[in-house]
């Protein structure tokens, strides 16, 4: 049979048409689709036994309770702990991606001396030499930990111990000045306040312990025109810039001129005193500013300031919160009688420690040791040799010696009371991940340097603190159940629960009161820096130089937030 | 009885923190893409910011978490998919996306009235070692496929496995909560079974402040929103309220 060109074309066309009505091409297409989705270079999750461990976030001083889901020994997910007395199950957005931080490309793994690679031996030798030549300053980011007491012991004999305090603690410093009660022993009794006036503090966007105020606000205020908890946000309005989340979600937003917060506080105090809106016992000195001057400086009318003052006291207790240590705003709390009263600034415990600020002049220090808990952008005001511990480099830490510290979940640490809390708490964050080789914490470094043979390792200090809790037999342990400490038969049982993620909650002091001797009204000079909370958010309050990679969902892959400056996600 | 899983999102409680977005990405092994933008990123849960367009102290803003609405009737993405890569699970009411079947034609993205679907433009990649932090319950998707919220289906599987191990047919509702609802620090996102009249979420969905977006399309979404503010409720049928950058 002769095959013609026409036959070939016919067979070809018939074959193609026949194939098209069979499932073959579609099955092939489907298989190719499945096959091409399983390339060997597509990462596969690690499979293995799954367990959930309780711990605490150590990336900022708030120490939120966390449930860490581990698969094959690696953390694969983080969630909050609903039974935590302060966070009540909340974490900050960055905390949910924190388990990926240890593999961040900018993880610091080797010792660096200026731009060169170096070794721990050389770093120790340089530090020992500096200790022999002059005083040492040690700067801590989270005071009150076991590691902090290592620093304090070392610094006691060889220099000074200083702490970098967050805005919540800075705002409490004026009360320390007027009452003698250390700021570290004071807290905000948000739970009992009915009116909260925030002077630029980002209460709904990264202030204090995540979830503490936002949950209160959600339960008592959200959406109501006459809420149980009135949130008044005093904050400058900048043209062309969106106001902060706190301002637009608050019950009332009071836009004022930038830097006029102190003048408004003085103006409000004047109305309160003139109109006898506060109790006689709470009265303080009359502010040296007229209402007209306050109105002129703030951009509000005299009537608006008077109305605001009356609104503030309409639903007591009222608590004023500043975003920094502005004494005029703190003085307004004194006038309102909120300093040392329920629903105001309260004394939470017998804590008597007072911390020297790291912002002060370090003076003649020969060397400065900076712990990894200190915010990434903190630069000590000194020309001394700087030994800086950091888990991540971020290309932003300036130091003579850059020393690799343990990352997230890689270090045993204790978690003292969070800075703004009204109750005392204590917890232990155990080591859940083995730190990579060549990594050392600042406390370990001091201990291993052998310079001070009396130093105790962190673990021993934590044991001693647990023994103290057991001996005092005060407070309760909040884990799966609530158990009074007095019911524990041995310190080992107590420690076992703390190591498993329970939180010790101290008994509230018999009286939260303290007396502020405010003899004259603090200066009402214009703040050099605006206190808009729109410039604050979670990522800016974050202390590490890098963000969890998934934070890119918030500012890069969506337009929810502005991009962080100088950070690496 | 078949379940109808859904959510009620109380917009008055949302502070726009974004915890739901990060928790969702972590749970579902959604990669962080260095070159992605709001147009090309992968955000199965996306919080949008909308204002009342007033100035000064009268300005109000609301944050709207947008994810797949799990439409119940005439589900647009199901109707248009040439690959049957999308289907409504009758047992749960969840609109399921099967990336293995997806050819990446993006017809479903065009059809979705809520812009809740995302195309995977790049190979998923993590820095060296970070793959150890991936959730073992969820497979990583390849580039070239469409992704969306599946109400953390891996968690439903775990809850079913737990119930089966305990000899129960029904799951314990406490065992199945999607990552976004679990992470919300103000409990604005609440998840439950809309078919169960005793479920608090089902009851909330029928409260006077509850509404759904674009109900005129008749797709019966299973995501309800709530607000006491009238201007927020008025957004429900708006087509261009402060229109943001579209993705795709």
Topology:
The complex is a heterodimer of chains A (569) and B (248).
Chain A: H1 5-20, H2 24-35, E1 50-56, E2 65-71, E3 74-80, E4 112-113, E5 116-117, H3 120-133, E6 136-140, H4 146-158, E7 159-163, H5 167-170, H6 173-179, E8 186-188, E9 195-199, H7 212-220, E10 230-236, H8 245-249, E11 252-256, H9 261-274, H10 291-298, H11 302-314, E12 318-322, H12 327-336, E13 345-347, E14 356-357, E15 367-370, E16 385-390, E17 401-404, E18 413-415, E19 425-429, H13 442-449, H14 458-472, E20 476-478, E21 482-484, H15 491-499, E22 503-505, H16 538-541, H17 552-555
Parallel strand pairs in A: 6-7, 6-15, 7-14, 9-10, 9-12, 10-11, 15-16, 16-17
Antiparallel strand pairs in A: 1-2, 2-3, 4-5, 4-17, 8-13, 18-19, 19-22, 20-21, 20-22
Chain B: E1 5-10, H1 19-27, E2 46-51, E3 61-66, H2 76-80, E4 86-88, E5 95-97, H3 107-111, E6 118-119, E7 146-147, H4 153-165, H5 179-183, E8 189-193, H6 200-205, E9 210-211, E10 223-226, H7 230-233
Parallel strand pairs in B: 1-10
Antiparallel strand pairs in B: 1-8, 2-3, 4-5, 6-7, 9-10
Percent in helix of chain B: 10-25%
CATH 4th-level superfamily of the largest domain in chain A: Dimethylsulfoxide Reductase, domain 2
How can the largest sheet of chain A be summarized? Answer: 8 strands, mixed
The low-confidence runs of chain A, each spanning 5 or more residues with pLDDT under 50, are: 528-535
Main structural class of chain B: alpha+beta
Q: Treating each run of at least 4 consecutive H or I residues as one helix, how many helices of chain B?
A: 7
The helix fraction of chain A, in percent, is 25-40%
How large is the count of helical segments of chain A? 17
Pick out the low-confidence regions of chain B: 241-246
Mean pLDDT of chain B: 92
Number of β-strand runs of chain A: 22
Strand arrangement in the largest pleated sheet of chain A:
5-4-17-16-15-6-7-14
